[in-house]
Specification:
Ribosomal_bL17_sf, ribonucleoprotein, structural constituent of ribosome
């Protein structure tokens, strides 16, 4: 005996509900985002994500299984050839639901359900960002303690020693700032170098805007010659390996 779905049925019969969900999934795969009632969006979400999982498998049996539910060949082609490859590296959570204003007339709750096609951040990039953030927070805490003690104590001495070492270090072809900045010092030196992590960030990379840099390079070659490595790897910094 079929297990009844939790909650009220969307259509007048079980068959009507299956056709309704299949049609909604077809529209979602074709347009990547559709507006429907909140109840239908919540029921469509697990239905569509199971089909995307089969699309990621990509074999003939999975394609035939999907074709039993969605008979539109273009929608199935979009699922297997265009949508599924973009979901590689993402383990579930293929869709998102955003509530919108109620529908005029019957005041039904409405929502937008869309596919999550943004690339998944690599673990190395995330770990590098977390490490940089922790280092910056630790440095700020030391400066705050030193300022509170009037420039005296171990924290102040450590900060002075760090500053003295930073002043002694000189990188060929680079611009060194006493205080880190998120804005480039000139139009030529736009590559950011973080002395704490010894990583560099090129314009347009994932963490470029949020990085506060003390050293600025004109070229990637100068940054690597100074001992800096690409943050998150060469691919994350759009550098040919």
């Amino acid at each position: 005996m079929p297990r009844p779905t939790k909650g009220p049925r969307l259509g007048g019969s079980a068959q009507h509900e299956r056709h309704l969900l299949a049609n909604l999934a077809r529209q979602l795969f074709i347009h990547e985002s559709i507006t429907t009632t909140e109840a239908r969006a919540r029921r469509l979400r697990p239905y569509a994500e199971k089909l995307i999982t089969k699309g990621k498998r990509g074999d003939l049996h999975a394609r035939r299984t999907v074709m039993k539910k969605i008979t539109d060949k273009y929608a199935v082609y979009r699922l297997f050839e265009e949508i599924a490859p973009k979901m590689e590296g993402r383990d579930g959570g293929y869709t998102r639901i955003i509530k919108t204003a109620p529908r005029k007339g019957d005041n039904a709750p409405m929502a937008v359900i869309s596919l999550v096609l943004e690339p998944v951040a690599k673990k190395a990039v995330v770990e590098d960002a977390v490490k940089t953030a922790k280092s910056a927070a630790k440095k700020a805490a030391q400066e705050a303690v030193a300022e509170a003690k009037g420039g005296k104590g171990e924290a102040a001495l450590a900060a002075q020693e760090t500053g003295a070492k930073a002043e002694k270090v000189a990188f060929a072809g680079a611009v060194h700032l006493d205080e880190g900045s998120a804005d480039a010092p000139d139009d030529e030196h736009r590559i950011k170098g973080n002395e704490d992590s010894m990583k560099y960030h090129v314009p347009g990379s994932r963490w470029y805007d949020a990085t506060v840099a003390e050293v600025w390079f004109a070229t990637v070659e100068e940054a690597e010659a100074a001992g800096f490595a690409p943050a998150g790897g060469a691919a994350a910094q759009k550098v040919d390996a």
